[in-house]
Design brief:
CATH architecture: 3-Layer(aba) Sandwich
Number of helices: 3
Radius of gyration: 14 Å
Order of helices and strands: EEEEEEHEHEHE
Strand content: 25-35%
Number of domains: 1
Organism: Neorhizobium lilium
Largest sheet: 6 strands, mixed
Shape: globular
Helix content: 10-25%
Structural class: alpha+beta
CATH superfamily: MTH938-like
CATH topology: Hypothetical Protein Mth938, Chain: A
Distance between the termini: 41 Å
Protein name: Mth938-like domain-containing protein
InterPro entries: MTH938-like_sf (IPR036748), NDUFAF3/AAMDC (IPR007523)
Length: about 130
């Protein structure tokens, strides 16, 4: 019996700077990914979010499970700055994480700088 193609969750096991973004995706670690990303201490994960989707606590469940290793969350909200909803900010704050919304381009640049400084940073990046 043929097994067929196995679709696995997108995941890069490690921390890496984002080399490029745009056209609906990102490039990092000599790879490209179409869609949004969560850049966490455990690695870079595909994230099922699109520009305009509401940011919820549930959408950040994977990030919240690694909260003890994160001090700052950069939220790339797409092409335009959108505020982080109060309930999401409260859930992050309860776990000791400060959050900063910005356009995805600004979040990528800030993430790369903070990563180079070995800071405890994570990023939630909505593809543009």
């Amino acid at each position: 019996m043929a097994k067929g193609i196995e679709i696995r969750e997108a995941h890069f096991p490690g921390r890496a700077p984002i080399d490029a973004y745009g056209n609906g995706g990102f490039r990092f670690a000599d790879m490209s990914h179409r869609g949004s990303l969560l850049c966490l201490p455990s690695g870079i994960h595909g994230w099922d979010m699109q520009e305009g989707d509401p940011l919820t606590v549930a959408a950040l469940a994977e990030l919240l499970s690694e909260a003890s290793d994160i001090e700052v969350l950069l939220v790339g909200t797409g092409s335009k700055l959108r505020p982080i909803p109060a309930e999401v900010k409260a859930a992050l704050r309860a776990r000791g994480i400060s959050s900063d919304p910005m356009s995805t381009g600004a979040a990528v640049r800030t993430y790369n700088i903070m990563l180079a400084e070995s800071r405890s940073v994570a990023a939630a990046l909505i593809a543009v």
